[in-house]
User: Fold this.
Amino acid sequence: MKPVIKSFSDHGTFVQPDTLDYIMSQKEPKEFADFILKNLKEYPLVLSIDQVKTIEQSTKIEEMPRPAISLPEQKEIQSKTLSAIYGGELPSVFTDEDHELEYDDPDKDDQIDLPDEGIQEPEPPQVIEIKKVKGWKPPARDYDAEISIIKDVTGNSTCEGTTTDFTKLFVNRYSALRKILRSQRREMANAIPINRIKKNSMKEVQLVGIIKDIRTTKNGHRLVELEDETDVATCIALKDNRDIMQMANEIVYDEIVGIKGQLSKNGDLIIIQNIFFPDISMQNGRHKAEIPVCAAFLSDIHIGSKQFMEDEWQAFLRWINGEMGNSRQKDVAGKIKYLVIPGDVVDGIGIYPNQEMELSITDVYRQYEALAEQLRLIPDHISIIMQPGNHDAVRPAEPQPTFEKEIQNLFSGKDITFVGNPCYFSLHGVEILSYHGQSLLDFATNIQQLKYNEPVEIMKVMLKKRHLAPTYGGYTPLAPEHLDYMIIDRVPDIFVTGHVHLATIGEYRGVTLLNASSWQSQTSYQKMLNFMPVSAKLPIIDLKTGNVTMMDFNTKL
Ligand SMILES: [Fe+2]
Assistant:
């Protein structure tokens, strides 16, 4: 069964249990799975048995049109599935009565642990004893920490949720990104306001605006409505122009783009000749620390969840204290000066339906207390930077200001810098953009070629758009701050996200990209959807050389 599941997960598609049974009942299940994948004309997130049968039928009877799931339906399924996997704000269509993702499974009660009778006693993870290791002299102890916060909404929130707030936010976004587009793109230097288009005398126009609407016409062209402070222009990407169509398919609502186009004969339509994104430049100089210290990235700890990986976590604690590992691994441990935690530090409460069944600690403050007990075992010479995520007890709308004083006080005695989400900060001059990453799912849902399980590819698109979460009304709740904290106005040296429980490293135009794993094993929902997280891994960056390594605590050190 494993090779079949692997084929689908490599493809980024989940298989419903009954679909999997059907595939396994075939003579050659692996070949049959590959055949299905080859003949998929869309990239469904969840593969249903009906889709498999449709493919079988359509390949038997030539010329038979294959009914595909329509885009809105596909989006709805994706949204539900991703909510189920990662928790978070659920779409209103997802209710307890909605059984679309459920199936009859005789072992279901084994998969979702039901609470025992009566009130469940909290079971915080065990606090291990760390022995002093003779001769352990971590070089990082010799250096003072140097953290500076560059941009953070914490303490600067202005929004009250009025319409004026939204106007201010969009004006800020538009002017900041227009400035970037105009300074970087020669073609955009002559961009004109939309109301200055002279329908009779102009042939070619350059415009910068916010995407108001984007849709496909009956004939397969893409229609883009671009808005600026003066007017709205209707632009069209013609389906025969592949390059332009490809760019048009990467556009999402509410982002800022530049468009160069030709006016149609009657002047009502602009035929798109080029689309410009406020991308980062090809080469970006990397800041480097002058001292040989490392930063480790530890996302989605999810303390309070029954699936918190206590054994692997304890191995991590022993390693970072010099108790475990071979000499090379101990060398790395000794160089760690910073621990960056990009959100979902606890599992939280009430994040998704029936979460209480999945919790080992049902009180959110106790979850933070338990985390504080664990972080006390981190050596004192290591500075921690902690950011909230969608499971944390802060406002859900992004940008999220950091944890309340009441929670921060639970960690007293530890050197922790509490920051918001997202946050730009620097360590010895090396600039880091840390973002929990809820919008990774919006990008994966709205742009067809992106997959939620390839977060680094999505992060490249964020850099290209210079925005972490442009789209309102999607999966990521957004707060209308007067300054758009989700803009990527500075090019960081390191860009880190979490949220999708994967561990990947990448690079884009000189920026190091990281998705920083998780410390939660497969949850019952994830199991039901065949999603296998990549947990208990720790990406580490040497701030002096820029080199990246990944420690894996799934295997014995
Ligand atoms: Fe998350």
User: Anything to note?
Assistant: The longest helix spans residues 163-184. The pocket of fe (ii) ion is lined by residues 86, 344, 389-391, 436, 499 (CB under 6 Å). The radius of gyration is 25 Å.
